[in-house]
Design brief:
The structure is a single chain. This protein has 300 residues and is α/β, with parallel strands linked by helices. It has a single domain (21-295), classed as TIM Barrel (Alpha-Beta Barrel). The chain is 39% helix and 17% strand.
Length: 300
C-alpha cells in the first residue's frame, strides 16, 4: 500500500475535492495546542497525517466528566497505529508529533463536576503526559450547565491548575466579562493560561492579555469575513500567540464545512503569518517555541 492508497498523496483536498498544497514552513514544525483526538473517527490516521503535514506537537483534551481515561489508555496505541501507517506508506522516517493531554471538565459539563470526577482528575493529573488543566471556563451561549455552577467550577479549576503547577486552558463563549473577572479575582495560575480558540476583536482580548494570557487562534481566523479576528492575531505578542484546531470542529479555509483534524493547523498558521506580514518560517518558529515552553514542560 502506497501513500496515494492511504490518502497521503495528495494529503489535502478542499471542500470541493480539489488538491491543495501543504503550507511550507521551511521544515519548521507547527503546534496544535488544542485538539480532541478522542472525537475523531481514526486518531491514528489523524496523527499520521499530522506528521506528514509537519505538526510537531499536539495537546489533546480529556474530560473527566466523560471518558478522560480513554485518552490516557489509548494514546500509545494511536501513536503506534500512526507509525504503522507511515511505514506502510514508505514514510517511516517521518517523525510523529509529541502528544500531551489537557485534563479537566468543559463548562458544558460543570453540573457533572462531582466528587467522583474530582477524584478521577486527581488520579489522572499525576500522569506525566498531563500538560494543562482544562478546558475550563464559561459557556453562556448554550448554558448546558447553570451559570452559577459554571462560575464555581471555573474558579475551582483555576485553583487546581495553580496547585498542580500547570497552565489553564480557558473556554469562553458569550461570557468574556465574567471570565476576566473570575481570572482576576482568583489570580491566573503561575504557570500561565491560554485563551483558547479566540475569535473576537483585539479589545476583547485585552483584559486577558493584561493578565498574562497566551492567545490561541483556530480555524475562524481564516474565515473570509473574520477580519477582526485577524486584527487580534496581528495585535498579539509573538511570544504569546498560539495555533490550534479545536478539531473536529471549525476547519479552516479552504476546508470549512469538513471535519477538522490536527494537520489543518498548518493552514491556520499560514493565514496568521500572512495577516501579520511575517515569513512563514519566522512565524512557525515563534509560535512553536511558545507552545512548547508552555505545554511541553518536563513533569517526570
Amino acid at each position: 500500500m502506497d501513500a496515494a492508497d492511504l490518502g497521503f498523496d495528495p494529503l489535502f483536498r478542499d471542500s470541493k475535492g480539489r488538491a491543495v498544497a501543504t503550507p511550507d514552513f521551511g521544515g519548521n514544525p507547527v503546534a496544535d495546542t488544542h485538539a480532541h483526538l478522542d472525537m475523531l473517527d481514526d486518531p491514528a490516521l489523524a496523527l499520521a497525517r499530522a506528521a506528514i503535514a509537519g505538526v510537531g506537537f499536539i495537546a489533546t483534551v480529556a474530560d473527566v466528566t466523560e471518558d478522560a481515561w480513554r485518552t490516557y489508555a489509548e494514546l500509545d496505541s494511536w501513536l503506534a497505529g500512526a507509525s504503522e501507517l507511515l511505514a506502510q506508506a514508505g514514510m517511516a522516517e517521518v517523525a510523529l508529533p509529541r502528544v500531551r493531554i489537557i485534563l479537566g471538565a468543559h463548562p458544558h459539563n460543570a453540573k457533572d463536576w462531582t466528587p467522583e470526577a474530582r477524584a478521577e482528575f486527581e488520579r489522572l493529573v499525576a500522569d506525566p503526559r498531563t500538560c494543562a488543566v482544562g478546558e475550563m471556563g464559561l459557556d453562556f451561549h448554550y448554558d448546558h450547565s447553570p451559570r452559577d455552577v459554571q462560575r464555581a467550577v471555573f474558579a475551582e479549576h483555576i485553583a487546581l491548575a495553580s496547585t498542580h503547577g500547570l497552565p489553564a486552558v480557558v473556554h469562553l463563549r458569550e461570557a468574556h466579562a465574567d471570565g476576566a473577572a473570575i481570572l482576576a479575582e482568583s489570580g491566573p495560575p503561575p504557570a500561565g493560561f491560554i485563551l483558547h480558540c479566540f475569535n473576537l476583536a483585539p479589545a476583547d482580548a485585552a483584559p486577558f492579555v493584561d493578565l498574562g494570557a497566551h492567545v490561541s487562534f483556530a480555524g475562524p481566523v481564516t474565515f473570509k469575513k473574520a477580519e477582526e479576528v485577524r486584527d487580534a492575531a496581528r495585535a498579539a505578542d509573538a511570544g504569546r500567540l498560539l495555533t490550534e484546531t479545536d478539531c473536529p470542529f471549525m476547519a479552516p479555509e479552504p476546508f470549512r464545512g469538513t471535519t477538522c483534524e490536527p494537520a489543518l493547523v498548518t493552514f491556520t498558521a499560514a493565514r496568521i503569518a500572512e495577516a501579520r506580514a511575517e515569513q512563514p518560517t519566522q512565524f512557525a518558529r515563534a509560535s512553536y517555541a511558545a507552545a512548547i515552553a508552555l505545554l511541553d514542560r518536563d513533569r517526570s
